[in-house]
Amino acid sequence: MEKKNIDWSNLGFGYMKTDLRYVSNYKNGTWDEGTLTGEDTITISECAGVLQYAQTIFEGLKAYTTKDGHIVTFRPDLNAARMADSAKRLEMPVFPEERFVEAVVKTVEANAAYVPPFGSGASLYLRPYMFGSSPVIGVKPAEEYQFRVFATPVGPYFKGGAKPITIRVSDFDRAAPNGTGHIKAGLNYAMSLHAIVSAHEEGFDENMYLDSKTRTKVEETGGANFLFVTKDNKIVTPKSDSILPSITRRSLMHVAKEYLGLEVEEREVFFDEVKDFAECGLCGTAAVISPVGKIYDHGKEICFPSGMEQMGPITQKLRETLTGIQMGEIEAPEGWIKVIK
Length: 341
Ligand code: PLP
Ligand code: COI
What we know:
Elements: E1 21-27, E2 30-31, E3 35-37, H1 49-53, E4 56-58, E5 61-65, E6 71-74, H2 76-89, H3 97-110, E7 123-132, E8 145-154, E9 165-169, H4 186-190, H5 193-201, E10 206-208, E11 225-229, E12 235-238, H6 247-259, E13 264-267, E14 279-284, E15 288-297, E16 300-303, H7 313-326, E17 337-339
Parallel strand pairs: 9-10, 9-15, 12-13
Antiparallel strand pairs: 1-2, 1-3, 1-8, 4-7, 5-6, 5-7, 6-17, 7-8, 11-12, 11-14, 14-15, 15-16
Helix pairs in contact: 2-3, 6-7
The chain binds pyridoxal-5'-phosphate (PLP) and 2-OXO-4-methylpentanoic acid (COI).
2-OXO-4-methylpentanoic acid binds near residues 60, 223, 285 and 286.
């Protein structure tokens, strides 16, 4: 199979239309058999649930070319399970988890020419999503839904790749106690747009959200969880019911413990203790693990000892080990890698 003529090493995190995407429709209480389609546009009712009341959820995962030339994805079963949780919270029908994985596999197979080569630093980002497609005008769930998966080749999420970024403590909240912060619903991202645009305007790469009830505890950023490294090399990650349970973060905690022999802790992290950490990173499918060099908090700065030029040594080790597992250079724990072809 011939690869597309793309400048893989210079890709950013953007959308590029690829050849085929997967689509399945839910009507009269059942999902149809699903198919691949070349049609990249969607026609729905002007009164569709997604357009009126934001009834939409999504996932994000990547396909990689391994060192020995296979195409693989990373833990797609966990994305399937998380999407089921998201669907239940927004009163949407669950797309069966095995069918989710099958749809991802079909989409990757159909767009194999877009999977970036090994060593390019890029990957094929997969975006499964589902939305209410039938009309609703009273506030209630739609009766019909569409599930789709598209693929787009991507490079690093933050400009500069693995260079440390600067974030600020946000005055806007991302999620409420007992709200929807723990699911991957479009509405969580809609309400972060003003915060991210104003952060960018003020020269920051991302927002650090604190818990909205007490504003004393670290939650996450708009698109990634936090990992901190203590001065004695312990890995600490915030525990909260209102953050997205990141698959990357869960994987990195395992890597830290089982591959690197580090102590790991998932617990409440108070903002006051952040200044004492040695390293800070943002972890997620898009972010992988992106180092944070500086946090701006209303006129005060927290500068991590790892600086603004390169990532800290533990963050670097975590990143190398995780990407090594994803690209087939390091043996993966049982069940982490789904070989597609
Ligand atoms: N937190 C938020 C708000 C996200 O959007 C994402 C991205 O999916 C993550 C965390 C990281 O999750 P994952 O590692 O499963 O991609
Ligand atoms: C991902 O990492 O897959 C995400 O969905 C984050 C998004 C903000 C790009």
